[in-house]
Amino acid sequence: MPAVVVASNAPEFEGRTTVYVILCGIIAAFGGFIFGFDNGISGGVTAMDDFLMKFFPIVYERKKRAHEDNYCKYDDRNLQLFTSSLYLAALVASLVASKVCSKFGRKPTMQIASIMALIGVGLTAGAVNMPLLICGRILLGFGVGFANQAVPLFLSEIAHSKIRGSLNIMFQLFVTIGILAASLVNYFCSKIHPYGWRVALGIAGIPAVILFFGSLFIVETPASLIEREKLELGKQTLKKIRGTDNVDAEFDSIVHASKIAQQVKHPFRKLMKPVSRPPLVIGVLLQVFQQFTGINAIIFYSPVLFQTAGFKNDSSLLSAVIVGLVNVLSTLVSVYVVDRAGRRVLLLEACFQMFITQGIIGAILMAKLTPTSTLPPSLAIIVVVLVCVFIMGFAWSWGPLGWLIPSETFPIETRAAGFSLAVSMNMFCTFLIAQIFLSMLCKLRAGIFFFFAAWILVMGLFAFFLIPETKGVPIDAMVERVWKKHWYWKRYMVHNTHYDSDDDEAKDPKK
């Protein structure tokens, strides 16, 4: 049996949840809205005939042929590239954003994200040819990469340990709100001819504008200020966000962690050391598992998926709206539960829920959906209900916790670097799924759902044995309270003295 770390013994610092912190969290979380809106908008746009006629006429003709294979009519590499190019760009951007985050702070990184996203939105909405369309997606991807790097770190660092889970999940909550908003936009814009797709893509600029101007009024995190040797400003900021002048204990803890961080000149090299293995392995694999639940295959292509199952264009877009609404409401459940029930309970329960639903969906499609038929209306509705149940499980567990756990488990000296690797892996897996899903659907047919179900089984075992509980543990106390007490990960802490310097220069001053 894996040891479960009990967080009740963790030291607590003074402070309360201030309105200002909540407002800062909401503004920053619009970075998640940008990410979620794009997740949802691309699938709806690629189902619009006007968009297909302009950029993908071959797919449009194939879609109109009644005898075409249900599973293969959208199988087109360029169509997949439209969706996936953003995530490949975000992968590269997240590595650059790590250095920007460390050197300049979380707040400027979010501002850069909003500017790049705005330029990308302009290019995609105004595109007249494929190169402009893809260039816009790439720039939008840079914005997503910068936002996904900075926002979860910002939320974890401004939050008191008692509400860190709930506040951090605001990022994922806004991702789901963005997906829902995109579904609604797709539904109404599909009726605007011939430029509905331009309107849909252009609306993505609204959250970027909100993030840019909103970020002018929020604070930089105390950890980032102290890390960059702005001690007095860091202390004043800490007092402001905690709502009390008695912050000496927490301030000293951050200063101590920052001094250790300053000894580490090469954080990415430090991540390769055994002592960094627990948060690195968990942070990276969470991203792999998050994407291989099949969630983004459903979010990206839910209109396409429902059309494949026999829904008409309007009804498939409306079904995507229902899925988006379920996603938002279920994420709200996580906001309420995560700091009460803990992380592990949510992860394990969701694995069971998602495994069952993926298996049943696969069985229904395998038995009843032939390449040239449609599902009976009653079975089609059951598929939509099962997709919603699957979304519920993901939305209150692996969705938000895939961002929360890596943002709270790395020590300050490798936090930006470690989280950037996690974000990069997330973007890589998102790119991979977006690029291959339609081809996999064509080749595996209903078997694709069994493929994702097998991954869910593996990740359930991983969560049970190797993911510790971090509920209520102060962010700079993870080594003592979590890793050194875990049945497996403690072996990597044997030679550790709170993440001592990994650099040869620190060991030998002559170098």
Keywords, separated by commas or semicolons:
511 residues, disordered C terminus, symporter activity, globular, 73% helix, transmembrane helix, mainly alpha, Growth Hormone, Chain: A, 23 helices
Give me the Rg, rounded: 23 Å
Q: What count of helical segments does DSSP give?
A: 23
- Portion of residues in helices? over 70%
CATH architecture: Up-down Bundle
CATH superfamily: MFS general substrate transporter like domains
Q: Strand portion, in percent? A: under 5%
Shape: globular
Low-pLDDT stretches:
1-10, 502-511
Number of strands: 0
CATH class: Mainly Alpha
**Class by helix and strand content?**
mainly alpha
Distance between the termini: 46 Å
Q: Biggest sheet: strands, sense, closure?
A: none
Order of helices and strands: HHHHHHHHHHHHHHHHHHHHHHH
Mean pLDDT: 84
Here the CATH topology equals Growth Hormone, Chain: A
**Tally of structural domains:** 1
